[in-house]
Request: fold
Amino acid sequence: MSDGGSIRADVWLWRARFFKSRSLAARFVEEGRIRLTRDGAESRIDKSARPLKIGDGLVFAMRGQLTAVTVTGLGERRGPAVEARNLYAPLADPRAEALPPEPGAPSVGSGSGEDAV
Reply:
């Protein structure tokens, strides 16, 4: 299934353990709730058979939380969670890196001084 360097979106989401069943993943995809970024172009995935490739970026909301990942592997099977975590890498929020700290906000590592020597 993963020959040719691509895999169906619903199969990848199921193998990466974002969904308990492939049919749930397919329904989620077909509702158009996933954004795909490939080669700098962003599009919405609305068909479960849409191929995903290594390096693709995916953004979707699940259980009230925004998930942004990069596809790092296609997988051969739905394995244990440790194996599934190797199929993706979380994307860093580029806005968080670009924004300076707010004035008056505590800096990283500051606290009550109990740790200070």
